[in-house]
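Appendix B. One record, verbatim.
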Amino acid sequence: MELWQLRTFRAVAETLNFTKAAERLNLTQSAVSHQIKALETELGEPLFIRSKRGVTLSPAGKIALEHAEKILDAAENLREQITGNTKKTEGSVRVAAATQALVHLFSTLFEKFMDEYEGVELSFRTTVSTEQTVEDILNGASDVGFASLPIYSPSLQVIELFEDELVLITSKNHRFKDKNTVTIEEIKSERLILVERGASIRRATDSFFKRVGINPELALESNDTYFIKRMVEHGVGVSLLPSWAVREETAAGKLIKLKIEGHTLRRSVAMVSLAKFQPSPTRTFVSFILKHKEELQAMAID
């Protein structure tokens, strides 16, 4: 067997889709199928179970994937050990996260990274939920993602980075404008503007409402945080958003943010990547972000 066959096998195993694997590897689907068939013939066992619903790893395939990962990681490690002392870090890193997080939390760090590692190109993919971010990593659409916990997958490396806090936001003319905190009873009579279901912010707010016994009147919901902030600003309703997401608007006096008396709504945010050996640009980016954890935490809670 050859390394290129193992790389093809790993791509199919990660995507469970011959077409997606071919696109990732820049091969034709027939070439991918031929390589998998040749590998199965050499090993004497089917690596995938094929059905009308798609493909899944066979028992032999699961064992083969474990060994293929080790072989490919060792080969990549060898290559970088030989060339690492003379070759500067070059390549690309694809980052996935929610739009607001990319703009308000990570943009400053990204600029610093690009200044320090001019040979690494960063590209960004916005996602609407933790599930989409995780899916992007698993299917190879992104290399590193930022999403809220919990995240469960044996294929992923999940590193907790910081905690943020959800606060109640209102318009500058709202009846709460002169308050610093509000009670649960006061919130019950408010119309809520919420992030759409599936997003981590919505999961956190729904969990909170259930815990304190609130069945909020929904004014509207949206997956666009900018739109939610504008609707709150115009007095359509109030919302719960991360403190960092409304920093500019509260500083400008357009929105008011308040804490909820007796409650702290916090989320844990993690950096996510594949657990296997990563190319040098990805490992460099992950290491850079980890060095700036304290800075991120400071920006997340102000």
